[in-house]
């Protein structure tokens, strides 16, 4: 089983290879392992409240919406809410449905002074399968990691 330093190194290498504007990118399994290893890590779910209510949520995650449903209007207070809830020195990981909004959230966090901002690639539901269904191909749910319905 990888140590925290090994996981962080892999995440940073992915960020460097992809030229990401934040510290690193975790797989869902790595993000969960980080939560197990250190109580100082924070997982921020940036999905809408509707997604949490109807699709499911991660028990350890905190919630700050990146955009509001319906209409997907951006949350203008995202950076301020993050700053109020999370110490800038913390290792903070962002997750959404598929990794796109959390990518933007990690970039915003990094821009706002969070040196240890990470994206959770694949997100909670991951990519769609050939039938257009999420949660089967990859992501937090498909990895069998802890989550609860609504």
Architecture overview:
With 150 residues, the protein is α/β, with parallel strands linked by helices. The chain has one domain (4-120): 3-Layer(aba) Sandwich (Oxidized Rhodanese, domain 1), CATH 3.40.250.10. It has helices at 4-18, 28-37, 49-55, 78-85, 100-111, and strands spanning 24-26, 42-45, 62-63, 67-68, 73-74, 92-95, 117-120. The strands form two sheets. Strands 1-7-6-2-3 form a five-stranded parallel beta sheet. Strands 4-5 form a two-stranded antiparallel sheet. Strand 4 and strand 5 form a beta hairpin. It is globular. The termini are far apart. The model has no long low-confidence stretch (mean pLDDT 97).
């Amino acid at each position: 089983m990888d140590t925290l330093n090994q996981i962080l190194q892999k995440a940073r290498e992915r960020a460097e290879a992809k030229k990401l504007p934040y510290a690193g990118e975790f797989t869902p399994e790595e993000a969960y392992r980080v939560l197990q290893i250190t109580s100082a890590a924070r997982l921020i779910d940036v999905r809408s409240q509707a997604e949490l209510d109807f699709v499911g949520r991660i028990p350890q995650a905190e919630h700050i919406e990146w955009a509001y449903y319906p209409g997907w209007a951006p949350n203008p207070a995202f950076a301020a809410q993050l700053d109020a809830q999370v110490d800038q020195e913390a290792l903070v990981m962002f997750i959404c449905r598929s990794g796109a909004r959390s990518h933007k959230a990690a970039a915003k966090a990094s821009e706002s002074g969070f040196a240890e901002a990470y994206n959770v690639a694949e997100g909670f539901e991951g990519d769609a399968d050939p039938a257009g269904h999420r949660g089967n191909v990859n992501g937090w749910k498909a990895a069998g990691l802890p989550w609860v319905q609504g």
